[in-house]
Write a structure and sequence with these properties.
heterodimer; A: 161 residues; alpha+beta; Alpha-Beta Plaits; 2 domains; 4-stranded antiparallel beta sheet; 28% strand; B: 156 residues; Arc Repressor Mutant, subunit A; 5 helices; 35% helix
């Protein structure tokens, strides 16, 4: 999808959040001197095209009790990586799951799966569950716990527009 | 940021709002009307509660979630091994880049993990190179090769 200057103005204006009023798109229209129905129509078109995934709130995992969050990483046999990765992604406690290139020799892992739980013990139990699922196709694995959120702003549009 | 809220910080209506609105809301004149009706509160109270949830840190954002790839751009997970004594300085340098969408400290030799989100795929490598030049540290890039379907939700 090609965004025009007006689409980009809408995305820039709302990048750090929607105005908190009962009619947020009317307010965005006021900021940008656009009719509300144009703001809504343009955002709906961008959502249909997947540029906007959704308009939603982002829960803070930590604040809501999911205090333990580990990035589990797995060295999977390339021949079965896609089929096994799909099984890992389908687990209810996995929030992101990707195949990525290795960075040998220091980084042998090609499957990344974020595991969430209330405690580290809970996350470790889930990691054992993943290890059992992968079996011998997994040569080694590790888990990296996050100790601090250093930045979380989501994507911003650079430049003018 | 990392602290868990007290168990009484959220009431049933707050939890309902978090559970419903993380999935999205309609693009209409009154986008809060459906959830307000379900919670049996006025729309203005939904708005006030979202503002409070943001203030107490129960939510981190409220607004559009953009897909850089659908815009012809790209995301890339990157990692650095930052010496402990330089950590704060490097955080400042890395976070100053608008392309850095998230950044997490993790327990590992590779202790800083951030996501670059750019409109043009070429800009990923450029941003990573600028960070290397500014910090004098190597930036490892882990672009995704395959994304698996996810059904994860946070139950408030």
């Amino acid at each position: 999808m090609t965004l025009d200057a007006t689409d980009r103005r809408i995305l820039k204006a709302t990048a750090s959040g929607l105005p908190l009023t009962p009619h947020p798109f009317e307010e965005v229209g006021r900021w940008l001197l656009l009719p509300e129905n144009e703001v809504i129509a343009r955002m709906a078109a961008m959502q249909d095209d997947g540029v906007i995934r959704r308009v939603a709130l982002a829960p803070n995992h930590y604040a809501l009790g999911l205090a333990a969050n580990g990035m589990s990483v797995w060295d999977l046999d390339d021949r079965v990586a896609v089929s096994l990765g799909a099984k890992v992604g389908a687990l209810p406690f996995v929030s992101h799951c990707y195949l990525r290139p290795r960075a040998l020799p220091d980084w042998p892992y090609n499957l990344f799966a974020m595991l969430h739980g209330k405690t580290r013990d809970e996350v470790e139990a889930k990691r054992a569950e993943v290890a059992a699922l992968l079996g011998e196709a997994c040569r080694s694995h590790d888990i990296l716990y996050s100790t601090r959120i250093l930045k979380k702003t989501g994507m911003r549009l650079a430049g003018e527009g | 940021m990392r602290a868990t809220l007290a168990s009484d910080a959220l009431d049933a209506i707050d939890r309902l709002l978090i559970n419903r609105l993380q999935d999205g809301m309609p693009l209409t004149h009154s986008p809060f009307a459906p959830v307000a009706a379900e919670a049996n509160i006025p729309e203005a109270e939904v708005v006030d509660r979202i503002a409070r949830l943001r203030e107490i840190g129960a939510i981190t954002r409220f607004g559009p979630f953009l897909d850089a790839e659908a815009m012809g751009g790209a995301f890339c997970l990157c990692a650095m091994a930052v010496p402990q004594y330089r950590f704060d300085e490097v955080v400042t340098l890395v976070n100053a880049h608008a392309e850095v969408a998230h950044n997490y400290e993790r327990q590992h030799k590779l202790n800083m993990w951030f996501v670059l989100a750019c409109e043009r795929p070429d800009d990923i490598a450029k941003a990573a190179k600028r960070i290397e030049e500014e910090t004098g540290l190597q930036v490892l890039c882990f672009p995704k090769q395959h994304e698996f379907f996810i059904g994860f939700r946070v139950e408030a």
